[in-house]
Sequence to fold (60 residues):
Amino acid sequence: MTLIQMKELKSRKGVPYARGHVYRLIKAGEFPKPLKLSANRVAFLETDIDKWIQSKQVAA
Fold:
C-alpha cells in the first residue's frame, strides 16, 4: 500500500490541479477520498489515484 501526499499529486502522478481544486473535486465526489494522516496531513492510496487517472484518460 503506497500513499501519495497531497503535495506529491502533481510531481509523482501529474495531477494538474491546485490543492483547492482537488478539495472541490473530493467534495463533489469526483476525486478519491483522502486518508487523514494527522490533523494537517492527508494522503491518497496510489491505487485510487491510478484508477482515477485511467478513468479520465478513457473519458477523454
Q: What stands out?
A: Residues 22 and 31 are 7 Å apart (CA to CA).
